[in-house]
Amino acid sequence: MTRSIPQLGESFFNTYPLNSSLANAATRDLAYPNYCNQGGFPGAAVRMGDYKLIERFEDGRVHLYDLNHDVGEQNDLAAEKPETVDRMRRRLHAWYREVDAKFLRPKPGGPEPWRP
What is the CATH number of domain 25-98? Predict the structure, then answer.
């Protein structure tokens, strides 16, 4: 079964068979929001080339991984590669605007959540 690589803004959970050729994947931008109730954190991610940037919706913190050398996402490169973070974050924020993304809202009497 052949699966196409989703375009920016489409969900791509479980769309990459492990034995398929992903030769063109590194040239595409992929982004997805995540409001997981499985113990994770709300956020979004974008992949550009070998890099994946994750942005947390709670406080705006970012994490950057080189998936070519760190598929397990153990070595956060955000502090070492601020230019890459800035470029990817601009692309992710542009995507938020393109899709009119909705973000966390404060609870009555609670703190104001982070906004991009």
Answer: 3.30.1120.10
